[in-house]
Design a protein that fits this description.
Structural class: mainly beta
Radius of gyration: 14 Å
Number of helices: 0
Oligomer: single chain
Order of helices and strands: EEEEEEEEEEEEEEE
Shape: globular
Length: 174
């Protein structure tokens, strides 16, 4: 899907949908999962060159699964989890060369699990957590981002496992 406001918009209360083997580019947002949407499964998704963000999971959207996601060269974020987007599971995500952070987890987006994540060459951070807690990151690689590999702001009780070899702790702000 290309040259639209949203490549695909799953509007409020969109539950139990499968989005697979798709590419979204030159839209405002590649994929937008709107408020209060849960139990959706995104797999083998590529987003790039969108004027906003690659994938946006909006307020109170939880228990979604995103697998094998590549998001690059978007004007803002590769992936954005906005207010109260909790309990999501991501694996096999690569986010690079975005205009802001590769992955942004914001405003009480808690209890998300991120596995096998790579984020690099982003204009801001590789991964930003803002006012978000109890998130778990496994096998994380973040490098060559303009600011930090991982930036935690007003966030606590987050778990980073198997990252010491791939992320310099000098790039971790607490």
């Amino acid at each position: 899907s290309y040259s639209n406001s949203n490549g695909i918009m799953m509007s409020t209360n969109s539950d139990n949908n499968l989005l697979a083997d798709s590419t979204f580019y030159n839209n405002s947002r590649g994929v937008a999962l709107s408020d209060l949407s849960s139990e959706n499964n995104f797999c083998n998704i590529t987003t790039y060159s969108n004027s906003d963000s690659g994938i946006v999971v909006e307020m109170h959207s939880g228990n979604n699964t995103l697998t094998n996601i590549t998001s690059y060269s978007n004007s803002k974020y590769g992936l954005l989890f906005s207010a109260y987007s909790s309990g999501n599971n991501l694996s096999g995500v690569t986010s690079y060369s975005n205009g802001d952070s590769g992955i942004m987890v914001s405003a009480n987006s808690d209890n998300n699990v991120f596995k096998n994540i790579t984020s690099y060459n982003n204009t801001d951070d590789g991964i930003t957590l803002s006012v978000s807690s109890n998130n778990s990151f496994y096998n994380l690689t973040a490098y060559n981002n303009s600011d930090y590999g991982i930036n935690l702001s007003d966030s606590s009780f987050n778990n980073f496992s198997s990252t010491a070899a791939s992320v310099s702790y000098t790039h971790l702000t607490l």
